[in-house]
Amino acid sequence: xxxxxxxxxxxxxxxxxxxxxxxxxxxxxxxxxxxxxxxxxxxxxxxxxxxxxxxxxxxxxxxxxxxxxxxxxxxxxxxxxxxxxxxxxxxxxxxxxxxxxxxxxxxxxxxxxxxxxxxxxxxxxxxxxxxxxxxxxxxxxxxxxxxxxxxxxxxxxxxxxxxxxxxxxxxxxxxxxxxxxxxxxxxxxxxxxxxxxxxxxxxxxxxxxxxxxxxxxxxxxxxxxxxxxxxxxxxxxxxxxxxxxxxxxxxxxxxxxxxxxxxxxxxxxxxxxxxxxxxxxxxxxxxxxxxxxxxxxxxxxxxxxxxxxxxxxxxxxxxxxxxxxxxxxxxxxxxxxxxxxxxxxxxxxxxxxxxxxxxxxxxxxxxxxxxxxxxxxxxxxxxxxxxxxxxxxxxxxxxxxxxxxxxxxxxxxxxxxxxxxxxxxxxxxxxxxxxxxxxxxxxxxxxxxxxxxxxxxxxxxxxxxxxxxxxxxxxxxxxxxxxxxxxxxxxxxxxxxxxxxxxxxxxxxxxxxxxxxxxxxxxxxxxxxxxxxxxxxxxxxxxxxxx
Length: 547
Prior knowledge:
Elements: H1 2-10, H2 13-42, E1 51-55, E2 62-74, E3 77-83, E4 94-97, E5 102-106, E6 111-116, E7 121-131, E8 134-138, H3 144-193, H4 199-230, E9 233-238, E10 244-248, E11 252-256, H5 263-279, E12 282-283, E13 288-289, H6 292-323, H7 328-340, H8 345-368, H9 383-407, H10 411-419, H11 424-453, H12 458-461, H13 488-497, H14 502-546
Antiparallel strand pairs: 1-2, 1-5, 2-3, 3-4, 6-7, 6-11, 7-8, 7-9, 9-10, 12-13
Helix pairs in contact: 2-14, 3-4, 6-9, 6-11, 8-9, 9-11, 10-11, 11-14, 13-14
């Protein structure tokens, strides 16, 4: 028996089972993490029923309206986290309640959930419509509810159309005027720094400034008219304490009756909210709204970082593998590269802040943007410096992966190419590098996946809580390398650690984290698929060459 156990141990079977168990455990942990993030994040967008009850926990009893956000058991007592909304009217929009202390719990069909641009949700009953300060519609009987909701829907559509027109003017026309005025200011400043004041050019600048002023005056009148039209309508809602609240229609993002929705209507609202999450800008201190600026900023930074790190990493790996002499110096370089992969990311952030921003950016401002000083142009955190910092952070990954791919190429292929008369450069370009593409691609995608999830260095070199404009737009030079941007990883950090309302921010943080993990997993899966396809492709070419 002991001999059989010894043979079983020495045969390596236990280590196989241990390895399989470790892989299974890691896979289960990963799936569990995705399920948790998906349930807590994506479940946030489903329209939840809203209850109305009387709480006997206080004297006198209070009427409450809200939705159940969470539940837990403490010392054997079940309690629920009730989202009361109405943050501008109550001390707190979340409160823990004991279900046993709630009486007359009901889910009325006419109870409304109103998503606002600020102050979170409002819960109550739609009781009237106000136009220019005059009440024009109200609920006089039960059958009036549907007509009142249809009227509110029409006014919401009108306000949304006016707001889109207003935002389009602010983003395009006014932005162009502001950019033109700033360019005129810089031209005038350059003339002053040049030691002279050419009268002709100064008169031209004055005429252009006057033209911009006239154009802005016309646009300003148009904006004032749009704002008056947007603020024309308001909706009246009766809240839990019986009082009536007037809410401008322009401040309403979405209004619906969750207790009166059928399954198809609920799915429609869910899809609409998911679409808003992926295509809109954040609002209400990033607690509500979408992630489009963060997605945009993350994608632009990763693409720019990839353009920088790929040639640097591949050239360094080719030199170390193909050209560097074998000796202590080359070995020291490899050791340094491997050690750089283990340096904490915040150290790279400090290096980027000191070298790229303060030194390189300051010198660029002195040489090319002196007219804008003391306001920095490149001497401040921005997209370019963040991309360069992350390129340095991920450079060891690309170098190591590429060098391993080059080392795995049989020496016979190099020797055969050289024997046929090809130079070392031709052999490298036509034989070695094509066969190393799978490893190069793997290194790049791993670098992209790591860069997409980094937060610590970006806090120092370019990422902000809220960016007013994306780094890529239709205004020359189109890609604004000096501009700060938003990032998915920092967005999660901001929601989880710096939000003024943690309970309201956590669902958004889970949804953002789920999106970030999905992006990273997608990048890694794409690397595996592309690597396998390239391997099969070059294996087929190699087999045809030998036959």
